[in-house]
Amino acid sequence: MANLDDKKEVVKEIKEKVEKSISLVLLKYAGMNAESETALRKHLYENKIDYKIYKNNLVRLALKGTKYEALDDELVGPVAYAFSYEDPTAAARSIYEKIKDIEAVELKAGVVEGTKYDQSGIKEIAQIPGKEILLGRLLGSFNGPISSFARCIKQVAEKKEA
Questions:
Q1: Nearest-CA neighbor of 94 among 134, 133, 49, 29?
Q2: Contact indicator for 132, 48 with CB cutoff of 8 Å
Q3: How far apart are CA 14 and CA 150, in angstroms?
Q4: Distance from C-alpha of 6 to C-alpha of 21, rounded to nearest angstrom
Q5: Measured between alpha carbons, how far is 22 from 130 in angstroms, rounded to an integer?
Q6: Average pLDDT of 50-69?
Q7: Quick one: pLDDT band at residue 87, thresholds 50, 70, 90?
Q8: For residue 53, what is the enclosing H or E element?
Q9: What is the pTM of this model?
Q10: Pairing of strands 23-28, 115-117
Q11: How far is residue 60's CA from residue 68's CA, in Å, rounded to a whole number?
Q12: Residues 23, 67 contacting (CB under 8 angstroms)
């Protein structure tokens, strides 16, 4: 009976993570050695990604009735789970950056902001730059026309003074 109680606690833990997260990425990790596992965990921790390995049946129970229920058919074989709580693309991007060095690991599928993506879709999501980079690019694009406008006004003012 204690084993059943332990399983209920794990399902509860997964449900809490699911409720807080804005994206969930699944990855195949079969054949990964301990050194690579440690490097991946460290990289994801530094990028504020919650990375865990759970039994697929317990995850299946926790995902019922949630926005991640569409991943049910992907819960086969050795699967690790990466939860992102702040940036929707952070989990996919962080994993994608790191697994280039680790041959045994690959992105499997994921749900980002309520939409399920297969392996190719989640790889595309992973290549989207982070929020800070995108905001920087946006502000940079605003800066160009404003600077040009300011120079034009300055030249008109200088012409009138002359």
A1: 49
A2: no
A3: 54
A4: 23
A5: 15
A6: 92
A7: confident
A8: strand 49-53
A9: 0.77
A10: unpaired
A11: 10
A12: no
Span 88-142, pLDDT tens digits: 888 889 888 888 777 778 889 999 988 899 988 888 888 877 666 666 766 666 6
Mapped to the 3 state alphabet, what secondary structure does 79-136 carry? EEEEEECCCCCHHHHHHHHHHCCCCCCEEEEEEECCEEECHHHHHHHHCCCCHHHHHH
Q: Would you state the structure tokens that stand for residue 115, as one six-digit string?
A: 């939409």
Question: Between the CA of residue 16 and those of 8, 21, 53, 121, what are the distances in Å?
Answer: 12, 9, 15, 26
- DSSP assigned state of 68: T
Q: What is the rounded (10 degree) CA torsion for 53, 61, 70, 56?
A: 30
Long-range pairs of 92-95 with CB within 8 A, sequence gap ≥ 24: 92/23, 92/25, 92/122, 92/123, 92/125, 92/126, 93/125, 93/126, 93/127, 93/128, 93/130, 94/43, 94/44, 94/47, 94/49, 95/25, 95/27, 95/40, 95/44, 95/49, 95/126
pLDDT for residue 137: 65
> What letters, b where the CB count within 10 A reaches 16 and e where it falls short, cover 111-138?
bbeeebbeeebbeebbeeeeeeeeeeee
